[in-house]
Amino acid sequence: MTPPEIRQVIIEILERIAPDEDLSNLDDSVAFREQMELDSMDFLDIVMELRKLYRVQIPESDYEHLATMDSTVTYLTPLLKDA
Amino acid sequence: MLDELQDENRIVLTGVGLAAPNGDSLEEYRSALLAGKSGVQPFETRYIKQPVLAGICHFDEFRYQKKKERRRGTRAGSVSIYCANEAIRDSGIDWENTRRDRVGVYLGITEHGNVETENEIFEISQFDYDTKVWSHHHNPRTVANNPAGEVTLNLKITGPHLTVGAACAAGNAGFIHAVQMLRLKEVDLAIAGGVSESIHTFGIFASFASQGALAWHEDPAKACRPFDVNRNGIIVAEGGGICTLERLPDAIKRGAKIYGEIVGYAMNSDATDFVLPSASRQSECIALALDKAQLSADDIDIVSSHATATEQGDIEESRALKAAFGDRTTLAINNTKSFIGHAMGAAGALELLGNLPAFQDRIAHATINLDEQDPRCDLHQIVANRPRHMEKVEHILNNSFGMLGINSVLIVKKFPAEHGGVFE
In this entry, which stretches build a coiled coil (chain A) (predicted)? Predict the structure, then answer.
């Protein structure tokens, strides 16, 4: 997948786990938590969704890479290049 | 009378919230019961190949709950949140200025957690049973206090909460626990009743089917037939019935509208069988509740029966009622399951609440689908198919029994209108 495609995947996951949020003005460089009501269980949902969709295993030590949209896409690009 | 009105051991119902398969409010539900309107429908359930019927609720899940809260929680939690909010709104309590640490939430449940466990097992089956895709939400969704806990999260209640696991006696048990906690002054306001999400677990249908106790009829509205010789089992339903309960002096002080006073209750155990009921213990339970209420059997005007439309259950309860009430013709015996099916943990609560307006209109709603009464259910007071006008309705007795031989009886008395009774 290309970075724009990965971004779209993340948007769709966020739409499912935070259905009350308006994501149209999401700033990709700002932490998700500063723009949305997301707690640790929600972040685990992002990890779980990626695991289910693409069999991607994200170790806990790498969760910090999921802070913003930009960092998430950067982190996932090599992992999903063949997806 | 004035001193009696200051008696802090007197507990009254002051707000009603409910979700039934045939109504989302007391007004709608009561109208449906008087009109003979069923809430039983065809239902899709996982794995089971035969057609299944169920009592399905249609309340708006998002009236009081965000989509995200609903996604995180359970159907039982959602039913509970809807009913609890409706009850508080109906009660007229100044919720913004209510001390939330003095509010208790006590909800009866038949079972909890089966729905989520079945869902997760299905989910991992799609991934070759890889437990790494087992949801981290499973534990908070399946802990036994979940429905009551979701209510506290939603309403920011910091007082005690718990569920009362009492099989199908649970609706009454929730109210009984609230009465006890209010009398002990553990809380000043109780939000209590019973809830069920059971139709969302295939296991309950499969288990009743294996037991030969799952009802079916080509016309869903005719499927649940308590006391009828052609009954063929249980219709499983979901739902909730939750009330606000207060000590009488508190209720009077704030000018509450009072639906009725819980004057008697009892619970006991058969200690005889996992599944089969016992008429002797049921009639003892009725006698205990009457004794606690300082009433005689002749004081009861309506008996809301538990009968589930299983042969053994209907016959045993009929024997218990015969022993307790004899053949007095001024008594009305009715049954709500014939309309909505068996709402499990919510059954006792919903069945009581649907009868409360009889304090006002003096009408005992019917037991529908009673075309040919089973002669072994030798009761002459069953309100068959059409509502019955009563000379008076002062006391309603509500039966609710469950597996493992758990029995519960609740007696509610009409409250005088001049002191806040909502029914004149």
Answer: none
